[in-house]
């Protein structure tokens, strides 16, 4: 919905922040709508290669969501600490480089799972109305609790969750301290400072929402692979 509204209004390239919000909405759409459709197809027609590809793309999308939030934090940090530099016009190359950086990092964080994921199949039988058995073979992706999967999950936890979270924490902390100091010293107008604080507060709330939604999954997956949970 957000992406559709921004696409119709033509505000995607109005600023880097607008573009990143649009990219974030598209990534969510890919993760929660498009990829599940391919998972449903994979259960009946999948093979080992499609299993690895789907796991890679699925995990990369989750990482790209956090990377987009990191990019938004970087943009907010630059706008507050270097406001004149942020006014420079942005061309298409800037946006393409941002997308390339986000997804390159996302695939780097997810690529170890190619070596740890396995394809398993199971035959499920059910009774027909005429009393005969109907059996179908379903395939699914399986991550065994071995050292390969433990290493993959640990790397993914650090690269996809911990490092982005630390960067966002330090970026928004530095923004808050800078705004407070400049407002206190009178180097920035009070109304401007309040406006920037308000927009920064909204982004921090959004980040906290993502953290509270995703943190349990990351921690449970990590504990599960080590046999703790």
From TrEMBL:
Keyword S-adenosyl-L-methionine: no
Protein name: Neuropeptide FF receptor 2
Membrane topology: Multi-pass membrane protein
GO molecular function, one term: G protein-coupled receptor activity
Domain G-protein coupled receptors family 1 profile residues, every copy: 1-229
Pfam families in UniProt: 7tm_1
GO CC annotations on file: plasma membrane
Organism: Desmophyllum pertusum
Subcellular location: Cell membrane
Keyword Transmembrane helix in annotation: yes
Sequence intervals crossing the membrane: 16-41, 53-74, 95-115, 155-180, 201-220
Chief place of localization: membrane
Keywords: Cell membrane, Membrane, Receptor, Transmembrane, Transmembrane helix
Annotated InterPro entries: GPCR_Rhodpsn (IPR000276), GPCR_Rhodpsn_7TM (IPR017452)
Top-level taxonomic group: Eukaryota
GO biological process annotation, one example: cellular response to hormone stimulus
């Amino acid at each position: 919905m957000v992406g559709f509204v921004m696409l119709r209004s033509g505000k995607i390239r109005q600023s880097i922040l607008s573009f990143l919000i649009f990219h974030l909405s598209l990534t969510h759409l890919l993760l929660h709508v498009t990829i599940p459709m391919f998972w449903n197809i994979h259960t009946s027609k999948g093979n080992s290669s499609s299993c690895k590809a789907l796991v890679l793309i699925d995990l990369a999308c989750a990482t790209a969501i956090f990377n987009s939030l990191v990019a938004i934090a970087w943009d907010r940090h630059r706008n507050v600490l270097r406001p004149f530099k942020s006014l420079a016009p942005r061309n298409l190359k800037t946006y393409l480089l941002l997308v390339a950086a986000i997804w390159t990092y996302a695939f780097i964080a997810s690529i170890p799972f190619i070596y740890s994921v396995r394809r398993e199949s199971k035959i499920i039988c059910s009774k027909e109305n005429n009393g005969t058995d109907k059996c179908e073979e379903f395939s699914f992706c399986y991550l065994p609790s071995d050292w390969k999967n433990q290493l993959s999950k640990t790397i993914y936890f650090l690269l996809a969750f911990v490092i982005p979270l630390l960067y966002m924490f330090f970026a928004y902390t530095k923004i808050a301290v800078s705004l407070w100091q400049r407002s206190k010293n009178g180097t920035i107008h009070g109304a401007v400072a309040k406006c920037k604080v308000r927009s920064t507060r909204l982004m921090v709330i959004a980040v906290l929402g993502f953290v509270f939604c995703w943190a349990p999954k990351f921690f449970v997956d990590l504990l599960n692979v080590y046999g703790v949970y």
